[in-house]
Each structure stands twice: as C-alpha cells, then as structure tokens.
Design goal:
Two copies of one chain form a homodimer. By secondary structure, chain A is of the alpha/beta class. Chain A has two domains: about 1-120 and about 290-325, Isopropylmalate Dehydrogenase (3-Layer(aba) Sandwich); about 130-285, Isopropylmalate Dehydrogenase (3-Layer(aba) Sandwich), CATH 3.40.718. Chain A is built from eleven helices and eleven strands. An eleven-stranded mixed sheet of chain A has the order 3-2-1-4-11-10-5-6-9-7-8, with helices on both faces. The first copy, chain A, starts with a strand and ends with a helix. The interface between A and B is large, with 57 and 57 residues.
Amino acid sequence: MTVNIALDAMGGDYGPSEIVPAAIASLSAYSELELLLVGKEEAIQEELAKHNASDNERIQVVHADEVVEMHEPPSQALRNKKNSSMRIAIEQVREGHAHACVSAGNTGALMATARFVLKMLPNMDRPAICTTLPGKNGHTHVLDLGANVDSSSEQLLQFAIMGSQLTSAVENKDNPTVALLNVGEEEIKGNDRVKQASVLLAESNLNYIGFVEGNDLYSGDVDVIVCDGFVGNIALKTSEGLAEFIQHTLRDLFTTSLYGKLAGAIALPILKSLKHKLDPKQYNGASLLGLRGIVIKSHGSADRVSFATAIKEAMIEVEKNVPDRISANLDLLQLEN
Amino acid sequence: MTVNIALDAMGGDYGPSEIVPAAIASLSAYSELELLLVGKEEAIQEELAKHNASDNERIQVVHADEVVEMHEPPSQALRNKKNSSMRIAIEQVREGHAHACVSAGNTGALMATARFVLKMLPNMDRPAICTTLPGKNGHTHVLDLGANVDSSSEQLLQFAIMGSQLTSAVENKDNPTVALLNVGEEEIKGNDRVKQASVLLAESNLNYIGFVEGNDLYSGDVDVIVCDGFVGNIALKTSEGLAEFIQHTLRDLFTTSLYGKLAGAIALPILKSLKHKLDPKQYNGASLLGLRGIVIKSHGSADRVSFATAIKEAMIEVEKNVPDRISANLDLLQLEN
C-alpha cells in the first residue's frame, strides 16, 4: 500500500530548509511513501533543486500562500489564515489526498485547525496530545500534554482509551498497562477528578494498574500514563528545564578547572550520547488524538533527522489505522454506559 | 539569643543513627543553638554515647514512646499516636520549649499533626509546603508542593504572600519577584483558577511578574513560583524521576564500553559533583508555611549532612521570625479586601 503524507513545509523554526531534506531522506528510506509538500512553492522548489530532487515523482508540491506564525493566537490563525500551509496540509487529509499530516508549526493553531477541518471522532470534545518519554525500563506514552485544562474524569477515561489504542497499535502490545498520574499511590490521594477517573478506569476493559507519581514518567514501567493537560504540560516543560539545567551544570563542571577540561575532552563522546538521549527531538512526533484523521505535531525546533522521525510516526499510525481503532473503542464505551 | 530547636529523632529512613550526628555537628557549628532530641530515650542515649556527647549540656533528650511510620495514614497517626516523637517534638514548639521543630518523618502526618497541635495563622486553611530548587541563574522558592490539591485563586494568593515573605526573610531580598506556574505565558492561557489568581496577584502589593512555564522552575530567574499542590508535587516528583533516569543513563554510558569505562574513571570526580548538585538533599529543609510556629520537613532519606541543612533552615526562620512576618502580611491582605 502507498502511504501519502502531507507535510506543512513552512512550519517550525526552520521551514523548508530542514523539512525538505527530511522529506527526501524519508522517501529514500520507505519505498511505500509519497509526500505532499505544502507551502510557498518557490521556496520549496528551491530546496528541492538544492538536493537534486526537483524531478522526484513521489513528491508533489501544493502551493499555500500564507504561514501561521509560531506565536500567533490560534483563533486568529483559524480566522485569518485560510490559505496557510498548515491548513492546506490538513485539508489534504480531509479531501482524501493524504492519509496523514505532519506539522512543526504552532501547537495551538494546529490543534484548532485540525479540529475545525477534520472534526472530532464521535463523543470527543478536543484533541489530546500524546508523546513518548524515555525511561530506565522502556518508554511510556503520556497524554494529555497541554491540549486540555481542567479535564473531567470522563475525559481522562477517553484519554486512557486513546492512549491505550495508540500504544497497542504502534508498539504491537496486546493489552498495554494504563495508569493515572497522581500525587500518591494510595486511593485516598489526589483531587476529586482523579479519584473519579480511577473508578471509571477500574470499571473499563483497560489494563488499568492504578495511580503512579511523577517519577514514574521516567521509569518506563507503565505503557500509558494519563493526566490532565495542565499537569502534563507542566511535567513536560519542567523536564525540559531540568535537562537544560543539568547540561548547563555539566558544561560548567567540565570547563571551570584544568582537570575538568581534561576530563571533559575525554568524556565528550559520552556526553554527546547523553545529550542525544535526552534530546526531546529524539522522541519527535506527538500524536493529536481524537480527530477524524491522523495529525502529527513535530517539535518546532526539529532538524531534518527529527522531522523524519515525526514522518515515520505518521506512517506507522496510517498503517495501523489508529483513528479507526480509537473510534471503535469509543463506541464500545458508549454502549457500556 | 539562644535558638532552641526540637528534632524528631525517630523520623526518616535512618532515625537517631543519622539525626544524632547531625545534631552534634550543628551544635559545634552554631554556638547559639540548643537542641531537644525527641524520641526513644534509650536509642538516642546510645547514639549520643557513641559520639561522646552524653554530657553535652546543650542537648536535652525528651522521651517519646511511639514512632509514626513512613507510610502510616495521617489521620491514623493523629488519632492513635499521641505519644509519637513527631507529635511531642511539635508540642515543644506549642509549649514554648522550642522555637522550631524539624522532622524527616511522614509528610502527611507531619502536616496534619502540626496543623492540629500548632493551629493555623488567621485566615489560613492548611499549611503549604515550600522548598528551594536550583537553577542556572540562582535558585527559586516553589510552593505548594503537595499539601493542597485544587487550591482556589485566593489560596494561590496566600501561597504567594507566604512564599514572598519567606524568601524576603531568608534571602534578605526586599521585594522578591513572584510568578504563577501556568501552561503558557500569555494571559489567555491556563485554567480559571490560575487566571483569577493572576488578577488577584496583579492587584496585590507583591512584586508579581506574571505567568511562567515549567522550565522556569530550573531557570533561577524568579524568586518565588506559586502553584497548586497537585501540580507542584508532580513537577517535583517528575524532576526526581528524570534526574534518576539521567544518572542511570550516565552510569550505563560510562560502563558499557572500554572507552566509556576509561572516560568514566577520569570523569568520576566531575560526575560526583554533578550528583551532589542534583541531590534533592542538598536543598534539604522544606518549610511548612501558614502555621503558628516553625516546622521544617527534612527529606526522609536525609543523611547527617543534609539533616543538618534542615536544622540550619529552621534556625534562619527562627532568627527572621517568619510566621510573624507572614501573619502581619495576611492581616494586611484582609484589610485591603
């Protein structure tokens, strides 16, 4: 089967200069892949020419006049930028020209536009953002990461179903473990929404194992961890801040004394591996779940290598038909109630 | 002035075996300090004898029959353990025998017992937990870290006042900067409570600078960051999990190849410094704020060095009279409304 993916070629910090090489590399790697590059035609063609890929028959350029800025309010982007590369890339999915869309653009605008253009699956209110975090014993899918604040216990259950289906599909795991993020593992801990969600999850057909705490986000012991978007966003940003602080401290320690400099020179390859392992771009490609279509959000600062990781994530979700799997399970949920 | 501090000698993972040496070291360091060691007299005397400190006139042993277990439910500890070392240590503050109390015991039980024995300051509902996090450009006081879930906007304002007074007192800063933790810096971001709290903070006499995101917990750019206890606890535990994962990864990288082993041996002193800098015990001594008295929570796994850090924190708060400063400013708040 051919997999068609629409790329918002203008999104992110670098636009076509990194996204076009990512596209070309992905086409070389996956023979079943075809790509629609959406954005300013001239800029895209120029990049294609640089890489001798102007004649690549598996690339189609779709012109889009406008670009959504990284800090543009989502409502404004939705209202005023009907010809943005982001919007037209998403429309390729709605029109059946692409199986999925990948964008490194403004998260809020991507979410609002995807929701408007593709619509939500039945009984779903807003998309949830799901990403993968590395851990000692494996990795963990975490959602929601900022799309929803003040989620109800029913929404937390929906996140759990979506996260479970996604993990089951992309990791080939039959019955992934699901936990709720809380301030303690005991049943009496936490706020009312988390406690109520725990009851709903325990009654569901999910492989629910109970509450976990913040440190479990990096243990890799649980397949799926569910939380409100406010909490998830703060946990993720806190991690970014701490990782940066640690790298800063290491740099300091390895440059302030002669011994430090020597040790630093010797340890450099190891420290580079560490940096690589901690780089959020390594796990690039967050899924916007709950939509009638596949939309993958790449980190805004993604380079060609990490943007290609997001394309790969989109391909897997297409092959595994993630939205249909989620939809089938949301229907089940409704029948149960 | 003599500073008297009551230590819960039985709390934490190690009890008297680390707390007694911490006490003796602190007495050597601070000539104005006197200590009440509360707990099982025999165990404490045995430790004192080991360190030739049985005759130290600045130590008084106060016998307590019972010990609150680390995972005992707070309500049970409060109801059934009226002769616990934790409770009797707190009672020393109420009775005027000590200016402050330090415990490495069960956080929930410490909070519930402190609140019951000492009572809250006027208009305060529950204690907030405040600790210090390290950052690139300095360090930051963060509260609440788990005492309160679902805090109202008024409670977030109270946390801000308490955090500001604490920071001003212990850091000798006139007008510490205060920010609210949110999922974005724009005014429209976040949940209703955070948005309402932002209005209250902007109207207050605090040096309020607006919203910050999770990564700012480790920037050191803001003096005080305020959040709901649910969010604060998860941010803190996420940090612990990530720091552990990074150390695990470093250990792995430095042991899996011959080059790694060599580099690791050379970099070992630097890596030890890193571990030391990341060790939460380095910043030991979280303040329980809002009480009619000073209570410091030490990390449960604190060794003698880090327990002494918590004793030092208690001394500073006594010298700066933190509860009175908070109380004066809470009164002001009420007059304004």
